[in-house]
Structure prediction request, 334 residues.
Amino acid sequence: MTWVVTGGAGYIGSHVVAAFAAEGIPSIVLDDLNSGRTAFVPDGVELHHGSITDAPAVAEVLRRPGVEGVVHVAALKYAGVSVREPLDSYRVNVEGTRILLDECLKADVRNVVFSSSAAVFGTPDTDLVTEDTPKNPESPYGESKLIGEWLLRDVARAAELNGDRPFRHTSLRYFNVVGSGIPTVYDVSPHNLFPILLAAVTEGRTPTVFGDDYATPDGSCVRDYIHVADVASAHVAAARALAAGRDIAPAYNLGRGEGVSVKEIIAAVADVIGRPVSYDVGPRRPGDPARIVTSSERAQADLGWTAQYDLHEMVQSAWDAWNVAAAEGTARLG
Ligand code: UFG
Prediction:
C-alpha cells in the first residue's frame, strides 16, 4: 500500500511524506527539485528526481509494485508570479496534472488526493467560506487549481460511464499553510508572510504590511492560518478514506475557522522571539482579498479531521525550524 507523493521534497509535500511514515504507510517521492530540496525528504523514503510533466518519469514511479494511490502536491504555487507567467502555471499545474492522471489510468492507480487551494475562491463575499462558496479565482494559479479539480471530476465521471474500475479522488483546499512539523523543514517561499517575516527579523530588516486600510478590525488583511502538520494529517485521513472505499466528497477546505490579521501575525512573531517587531505599511498587494477564512466542518464530519495546533505553535515551530536552518547555514528563501 505505497503512495506516490508528487512534490514530496517540498515544504508541504515532505510533511505529507512524514505523516504517512508516522502511520506506517510507505511512500515514494516524485519531485523535480524546482522548489523542493533533497534534504527535506525524510530518511528511508525514495526520491525519484523527475517532473510531473515528464510522462515516462511519472509512469516509472506509478508502475512500482504496490502503488495504491497518489498525493499530488507538485505545482507552481506562487499566485502573484502566476499573473506574470501564466503559461508556466498552466504547463505545470494543468498539463502536469493531465499527464499524471493519464499515467494513473494506464497504471491502474485509481486513488488521488489533490492539493488545491483557497485561491479557487478569489475574493469571497462571505465571512466564512464553505466548500460550496462560488469559485472565482483571481490568478492563473487559482484557475489552474480549479481546473485540476475539474480534471479529477471528469476522469471519475468517465470511469463510471465507461464501466471502468472507479476512479476515487478528493481535493484538499489549503488555506494559509504555515509552521513546521519537522525540525529541519521550513517554508522556503520568498513570497509568503511567514518566511518573509522570519528572514526579516533575522537579518535586521523591517518588514512591510501590504495595506492597512482594509475593512478589517485593524485594517490589515485577515487570513486563516493552519499548521502544515495539520494539513499533512488531513492527507493521511483522505488517503485512508479513498483506499477503504468510503464515501468522500470531491473537495475539503482546510483551515481553522479563525481569522488572523497580518498585524496580529507580527505581534505573534514578536511574542515568540521576545522582542518588538517594527514594520512599515506599504501599498496594498494587487489581488489580495481583505479576508478569507473557512469552515472545515465537512473535513471534520467526513474525515474525522480537525486542526490541532494554535497560532502560537505555528509561529514557534516556524521560528524554530528557521533557526535550525540558520545554524546550519542553509536558511534561504527561494
Ligand atoms: N503580506 C504582507 N507583507 C508581506 C507578505 C505578505 O503584508 O511581506 C500579507 C499579504 O498581503 C496577505 C497576508 O500577508 O494579506 C498573507 O500573505 P501570503 O502571501 O503569506 O499568503 P496569501 O494569503 O497571499 O496566499 C495564500 C497562499 C497562496 C494562495 C492564496 C489563496 O500562500 O498560495 O493563499 O488565497 F494562492
Observations:
- The first strand starts at residue 2 and ends at 6.
- The domain at 2-177+227-254 is CATH 3.40.50.720 (Rossmann fold).
- The chain has ten helices and 14 strands.
